[in-house]
Design a protein that fits this description.
Layout lengths: L18 H6 L18 H12 L7 H21 L3 H13 L5 E3 L4 E3 L1 H12 L16 H15 L3 H22 L3 H6 L4 H17 L4 H14 L14 H22 L15 H5 L30 H16 L9 E7 L3 H4 L9 H11 L10 H9 L6 E6 L8 E7 L2 E7 L12 H16 L1 H12 L30
Parallel strand pairs: 3-4
Antiparallel strand pairs: 1-2, 3-5, 5-6
Helix pairs in contact: 2-10, 3-5, 3-6, 3-7, 3-17, 3-18, 4-5, 5-6, 5-11, 6-7, 6-9, 6-11, 7-9, 9-10, 9-11, 10-11, 13-15, 17-18
């Protein structure tokens, strides 16, 4: 179930107003008066900047820290497994060609480069396939940009593990609130052709990098003003057949831009105090009926990381529910693929186009269901096997599988599946995907998934060490966690092996 942990509301830096105290002084919406006492940024950005500036000083509630650790482990595993896929390779090639100061590690390679290029390369790897997390209410994939940004800046700064974890949780909070402030109506959020994944990831990564750089409230406001200028991206990524530009839009670009902007501001670049509202304010220019209050609502009590999905299966988000439903029907009724004569899937109307007849196997629903029928399970290797996918498509796919849509189907991430086996018609609906806040994966399951993703690239021993070390970051008062990052893959030709979930 969603977490609303009871973190102390009044905690802040000594002598500084708390977030609640600042919020109480907020003028009514529409009041254009600006409080510039002591050079303070105006109200909307000031509240957010104050929260970001003090985030690393505040312990996370225990349950939130555990969830944040789950997402850190899960995303690092996605980076390592993606490091041997095309998007990951492209990111590494750019970082290697750039060179740069050896400030941060490109995971799985042994390469060290400057923080922005490390964030770029690790971000590209994090979303090189479909194993990273997602936050449905904000239409973002927070981890694939925020974790690479956090790793790069924290490693460079020698930050302790607990600061890394708090910075990651902070990034999720800012990421999720930014797109929801721009498009408070969920229908509008789903319909926008702006890339919500790029925009949310940028602001989350910038907040993470800015907090770790200890910029302070005034400079954090300026950091957000640069992020408002840098924000970009459209949903044209849907036409990307290689998952390389998609990785850049979702992860590489927002991660590296967030880090780079923090570096600009740290170097003394001035910005404007209130970028979100006012004349030509970001929210009004980009959003639809935007609500600035969403940017700060629930900060310190409602943690976005606790409401973010971890993928149980290594496929695109809209495929999770139908794939889970088919696996559960086959397991419950002890069916093999040869027993099945037909599979009918009903999806919400707004999702089917994302996973219907796609050029990549891990986001083609019919192919994924065909793999389950043939193999009786779904593995990382199978959904990245282009030769098998091409052969399946060339042979006309699987005629047993039918996909149709229901425009009124709610909630969005669900599926209704009917499996025909002989004279039986077995119906099953999945509305709570395993790995979602309504049916979360356990930490043990997350660690198991991570080991299976990392071991084929780095080896089983290194996978165990990586997972064990990251699992303990919340208690680390030093930067010992960085020791496990600089481990190259044993072979440049290593490819991912099955992830049996």
């Amino acid at each position: 179930m969603p977490h609303r942990a009871a973190a102390p509301r009044e905690r802040g830096r000594t002598g500084a107003p708390t977030i609640v105290e600042v919020r109480r002084r907020r003028p009514r919406r529409g009041d254009e008066r600006v409080d510039r006492r002591a050079g303070a940024p105006p109200v909307t950005t000031r509240v957010l900047a104050e929260y970001v500036a003090t985030a690393l000083d505040r312990p996370l509630p225990d349950d939130v820290a555990e969830r944040a650790t789950d997402h850190l482990v899960d995303t690092v595993a996605a980076i390592v497994s993606g490091s041997v896929l095309p998007a990951g390779r492209h990111g590494q090639a750019l970082a290697r060609a750039h060179g740069g100061s050896p400030q941060a590690t490109v995971l799985g390679t042994g390469l060290r480069t400057d923080t922005a290029h490390a964030a770029l390369a690790n971000g590209m790897a994090a979303h090189a396939d479909e194993t990273d997390d997602s936050h449905e209410p904000s239409r973002t994939h927070p981890g694939c940009s925020i974790v690479p940004a956090a790793l790069a800046v924290a490693e460079s700064a020698g930050a302790p593990g607990r600061s890394l974890l708090r910075a990651v949780a902070l990034g999720y909070d800012v990421c999720a609130r930014t797109t929801r402030a721009l498009w408070p109506d969920f229908t509008a959020l789903r319909a926008t052709r702006h890339s919500t994944h790029a925009i949310g990831g940028l602001f989350g990564s910038a907040a993470t990098a800015g907090a770790l750089a200890d910029l302070g409230p005034a400079r954090l406001a300026h950091l957000f003003s640069y992020a408002c200028q840098r924000a970009s991206g459209t949903t044209a990524w849907l036409r990307d057949a290689e998952h390389v530009q998609k990785a850049y839009v979702f992860a590489g670009m927002p991660a590296s831009d967030g880090v780079q902007l923090a570096r600009l501001v740290a170097a003394g670049w001035p910005g404007i105090d209130e970028p979100f509202t006012g004349e030509s304010g970001f929210l009004d220019v980009i959003g639809e009926d935007a609500d600035p209050d969403v940017l700060t609502a629930g900060l310190g009590t409602d943690y976005a990381v606790a409401r973010t999905n971890i993928k149980w299966l290594p496929v695109g988000s809209p495929i999770q529910a139908p794939a889970q439903a088919l696996l559960e029907v086959m397991r419950t009724h002890h069916l093999s693929g040869t027993d099945v004569t037909g599979v009918e899937v009903v999806l919400p109307g707004s999702l089917a186009h994302v996973v219907d007849s796609r050029d990549m196997p891990d986001i083609d629903l019919a192919y994924v269901l065909g793999v389950i029928l043939t193999d009786g399970r779904l593995t990382f290797a199978a959904v990245h096997d282009m030769r098998r996918f091409s052969s399946w498509r060339g042979g006309g796919g699987d005629p047993r599988i039918t996909i149709r849509t229901d425009a009124g189907m709610q909630p969005l991430r669900q599926a209704h599946v009917v499996v025909r086996a002989g004279d039986r018609s077995l119906a099953h609906r999945v509305t709570a995907i395993h790995g979602s806040p309504r049916d979360p994966m356990s930490s043990a399951e997350v660690d198991g998934k991570a080991r299976e993703l990392v071991a084929p690239v780095l080896g089983a021993d290194q996978a165990d060490l990586l997972v064990t070390t990251l699992r303990g970051v919340a208690r680390m008062s030093d930067h010992g966690w960085t020791d496990v990052l600089d481990r190259p893959a044993p072979s440049a030709d290593t490819r991912g092996a099955p992830c049996t979930n």
